[in-house]
Amino acid sequence: MSAPDARPAPKVSFVSLGCPKALVDSERIITRLRAEGYELTRTHAGADLVIVNTCGFLDSAKQESLEAIGTAMNENGKVIVTGCMGAEPEQIAERFPNVLAITGPQQYESVLEKVHLAAPPSHDPFIDLVPPQGIKLTPRHYAYLKISEGCNNRCSFCIIPKLRGDLVSRPLGDVMREAEKLVSAGVKELLVISQDTSAYGIDLKYAESSWRGQDYRTRFLDLSQALGELGVWVRMHYVYPYPHVDAVIPLMAEGKILPYLDIPFQHASPTVLKAMRRPASQEKTLERIRAWRSICPELTLRSTFIVGFPGETDEDFEMLLDFLDEAKIERAGCFKYEPVKGAAANDLGLPVVPNEVMAIRHKRFMEKQQQVSARRQKAKVGRRIQVIIDEMGTTVAKGRSKADAPEIDGNVYVSTKRPLRPGDIVSVRIDRADAYDLHGTAA
């Protein structure tokens, strides 16, 4: 029982913006806050302070972050800013000189120090309980598993290494112990994330790490093998198509991890890829994809592409459309090029693609992608597939197949006569298909 004069728990309102990697940063900060007795609230008004975890990758993301900070300042006035935009704090400080503090990404200790100064904790060990897996901002049945920080690549359009530094991998044993805690807490799907998942362990020279009494090397293959022993869905994100990725495809064919790879190809034209400072051999990439599909026919590829990169010609763009057809990229997002302050692409001296041309290319890309996706989806009609349930309706549940990551890919709408709960994995007969979604009936 708390002491009679115990102070009420300080309340913190939290805003998390940006990618899943930033979401994991938010989860770590929130876990620490809850362990120290802080109470989380959904509203800024009445909170002791507000924390805004920002995104600083694109100008549009920076604008969203600035708007979130402005809202927090107007509704509360006591604001701590962290995240990628905090790595270059001048813009924030100039617009909001009265914020309590600005810290960069991954600076968890700094955030906690600033919170302690603004609203000292009131910890009661009898009631302030934090689950072993920490506080998660995702639904209970899936979670992001971050395996490293930073990136060694120097893509000309990207400033992530400036914001988050070079690659720093977590030892495999540490990653697996976190994964085990998540699974024991009811997680049915692990989404592996980093800036460059297939580079995992390079900085540690693939050092050995122990888990369950067995030694593994800290590298992509060993991590995939270990995660495959947990008996849950394992989905790989942000994988570059390095040759050593080939060794993981048989694990997908065996059902150890999901037959799904999220690979940020960005483009297909060698000229554009060279300007982007990306791997530039389109033919080798296509050969690798064909080999992967011969080993694992169920493989689904997700990717992101940029149209309108400086110097992109009509010929370059047509090459990209051809690549979509040949590679059969089932899930693809397309972004119109947006210059980022501090990115090397700004100094290449290449011709700027007019906005109207960029818009036309974006539209054509998405039309082509819809055609590719529709063909792949149609082939699933009449088949039975496994679906993980995300939401339950009265008679129709919404879920995802092994080919669909949460929030970025398609959905499967499941007609059912029995109650289904989030996290259930059910067999579904597919009755019809849209360009991106499937509709079926639970067995």
Describe what this molecule looks like in 3D.
The protein is α/β, with parallel strands linked by helices and about 450 residues long. The chain has helices spanning about 20-35, 60-75, 90-95, 110-120, 160-165, 170-185, 220-225, 250-255, 270-275, 280-295, 315-325, 355-380; strands at about 10-15, 40, 50-55, 80-85, 100, 140-145, 150, 170, 190-195, 210, 215, 235, 260, 300-305, 330-335, 385-390, 395-400, 410-415, 425-435, 440. The strands form six sheets. It has a five-stranded parallel beta sheet with strand order 2-1-3-4-5, with helices on both faces. Helix 11 runs parallel beside helix 12. It is globular.
List keywords for this structure.
20 strands, 32% helix, alpha/beta, 12 helices, 443 residues, five-stranded parallel beta sheet, five-stranded mixed beta barrel, globular, 22% strand, disordered N terminus
Instruction: Provide a count of the helices.
Output: 12
Strand order of the largest sheet: 2-1-3-4-5
Q: What is the global morphology? A: globular
Report the oligomer: single chain
Strand content: 15-25%
Number of strands: 20
Structural class category: alpha/beta
**What is the mean pLDDT?**
89
Biggest pleated-sheet summary: 5 strands, parallel
- CA radius of gyration is 23 Å
- Helix share bin: 25-40%
Low-confidence stretches: 1-5
Terminal-residue CA separation: 50 Å
